[in-house]
Amino acid sequence: MSQLGLFDVARGKTETSADAARKIEDRAQTLREHAFSLIANYSLIPYYGGLIADEVAGLMGEDILAIRPRVSELVKMGAIEDTGRRRLNQRGNSQRVWRRSPSFKPQ
Questions:
Q1: By three-state DSSP, how is residue 40 classified?
Q2: Inside any domain, residue 9
Q3: Which tops the pLDDT comparison, 21 or 77?
Q4: How far is Cα 95 from Cα 80, in angstroms, rounded to an integer?
Q5: Mean pLDDT of 80-92
Q6: Is residue 43 part of a domain?
Q7: Contact 34/60 with Cβ under 8 angstroms?
Q8: For residue 80, what are the CA distances in angstroms to 20, 42, 75, 91?
Q9: Residue 2: which pLDDT band, with cuts at 50, 70 and 90?
Q10: Range(s) of the domain holding residue 25
Q11: In a domain? residue 37
Q12: Strand ranges (DSSP E) for the chain?
């Protein structure tokens, strides 16, 4: 399995997934880079120690449905990692707190 580069778009295995990937392809790179930057910066703040996907979406002013896949892509790339902590989102659901992976070197 090949790793995604910071500028690659994940492609699904279904026609619907492929259509969705093509539709967001132009924006995916920018969204992923911005999400990575926010997570990396908030990883350095002891109080936060990283961000949940909903916080990333809120800070970016984006719909969570555009951001969750970008967070998943960053995880697959090894750019971010689970802190082992959880925080509640606005709906009261527990989400993983993500931080920049110390070993990640952007391509």
A1: helix
A2: no
A3: 77
A4: 15
A5: 96
A6: yes
A7: yes
A8: 23, 12, 5, 24
A9: low
A10: 15-100
A11: yes
A12: 80-88, 94-100
pLDDT for 1: 45
- Residue carrying the six token digits 């908030």: 42
In a domain? residue 62: yes
Q: Which amino acid is at 102?
A: P
Mean pLDDT computed over 68-93: 96
CATH of the domain at 89: 1.10.10.10
- Calculate ∠ Cα 87-31-60, nearest 5°: 55
How large is the average pLDDT for residues 44-62? 96
What six digits make up the tokens of 101? 């992976």
Q: Output the CA–CA distances (angstroms, integers) from residue 27 to 1, 72, 88, 96, in the order listed.
A: 24, 16, 27, 24
Rounded to whole angstroms, the Cα distance separating 97 from 107 reads 24
Angle at CA 74, nearest 5°, toward 71 and 79?
135
Domain count, the chain: 1
- What does the CA dihedral 54, 59, 62, 64 come to, rounded to 10 degrees? 0
